[in-house]
Design brief:
Elements (H helix, E strand, L loop, with lengths): L16 H13 L3 E2 L5 E3 L5 E6 H7 L9 E4 L2 E6 L3 H11 L10 E3 L4 E3 L35 E4 L27 H22 L6
Antiparallel strand pairs: 1-2, 2-7, 3-5, 3-6, 4-5, 4-8
Helix pairs in contact: 2-4, 3-4
Length: 209
């Protein structure tokens, strides 16, 4: 019987920022990435992603556990949820009686990909006198990347199984093993997205014929 040998860790070329980012995801988190620049994460394997306006995302943070990863990019927030949640979203919105409205909730699941947020403490182009990465952000707020890249608001923890911390539909029936409830998360985001939609409609100038 031939013994199995673990796959070797991919070496990191620290002179290339994309290689540093890919090395962190593949070797520290064991997350699948898409070949070639820019670094993107495959969804539908270990997680799906729900993207909403940042205002709606911040309102929903109270329904997440401390280990639930959350990223921000400009005025959008990306919440990492259990794999399969993207497929469940349309039915869940119908069940919550939000299905008839056009809400600004985007879901990326099986076969999809999302931009890989910059690893914590890594700001592209920000280097110390000895070449070390300069941590960005203060007071728990991530620093904005100079190129508008996504950054972590709540980063995943290396060495931890991310699945147990992700919001899941099974949590509603008590089968989530302590995971956050996807239903409450979506209900809050849908409510806030609807409020944003109403405010924007009221702010539009009236059209006179």
């Amino acid at each position: 019987m031939v013994p199995t040998v673990p796959s070797p860790r991919r070496p990191s070329d620290t002179s290339r920022p994309d290689d540093t980012v890919r090395h962190w995801y593949e070797n520290e988190l064991r997350w699948a990435t898409v070949p070639g620049p820019p670094v993107e994460l495959l969804t539908g394997l270990r997680f799906d992603v729900l993207e909403v306006p940042a205002e709606a995302g911040y309102a929903a943070l109270r329904h997440l556990g401390p280990g639930s990863p959350v990223a921000v990019r400009a005025d959008r927030m990306r919440l990492f949820v259990a794999a399969g949640s993207a497929e469940e979203l349309p039915g869940l919105l119908d069940w919550l009686e939000w299905g008839s409205l056009a809400l600004d909730i985007r879901a990326t699941g099986s076969g999809g990909r999302v931009e890989a947020p910059l690893p914590p403490g890594l700001a592209r182009g920000a280097r110390g006198s000895r070449g070390e990465a300069v941590p960005g952000g203060t007071g728990g707020v991530p620093a904005a990347d100079s190129r508008g890249a996504a950054v972590w608001l709540r980063p995943p923890e290396p060495g931890c199984e991310v699945e147990s911390s992700l919001p899941t539909l099974s949590a509603l029936a008590g089968g989530g093993g302590g995971a956050p409830d996807l239903v409450r998360l979506v209900e809050t985001m849908a409510t806030e997205c609807h409020r944003i939609r109403l405010r924007r409609r009221c702010a539009q100038p009236l059209a006179f014929s």
